[in-house]
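name: query_chain
kind: protein
chains: 1
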Amino acid sequence: MRVLGIDCGTERTGYGVIDSDGRVHRMVAAGVIRTGAQAPLAERLAQIAAALRQVIAAHGPEAAAVEEVFYSANVKTALKLAQARGVALLCVAEAGLELGEYSPLEIKISVVGYGRAEKRQVKLMVRSLLQLECNLDSQDAADALAVAICHATRRWELVR
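structure:
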C-alpha cells in the first residue's frame, strides 16, 4: 500500500510517501512545503493545498495520514495549525483517499515504541525503519514519514 503522511504547519508542511506491506516500509518521496511567514494566512493555505495536490497526483497514494491537533498553550498557534490541517484533510478527501488520524503519542509508540520519545529519536527510527543510507534533512519530512509508517503499521494490525 502506498501511504502519504502529512505533518501540518503554516510555514512548513512536511510530507512523506511510503510503500508498505505493514511490516516492511520503503520511502518513495519526502519533502517540505514552505510558505512565506510574512504572507497572509489565506495565501499560505492556498500554497499548501496546491502543493499537496501535486504530491498526491505525482505519487498516487492509496491512503493518507495526518497528525491530530495537539494541545498548545498558545491558542493562536493551535488555531493556525488546525487551519493547515483542515487544508490537508480537504486535499485528502478531494482525492478520495482513505484517511488515518493519529495522536502524537500513537505515532511515537508506533515508530519508536515509546510515547514520550524526542524528535531526534523519531527521526533516527524513521531512518532505520526505512533503511535509509543518509539522514533526512528535514525534521518536518521525518515527522511526516513517521505518520505514514504509523498508518501502514496500524492498518496492517487491523487486517491480519
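note: The two ends are 14 Å apart (CA to CA).
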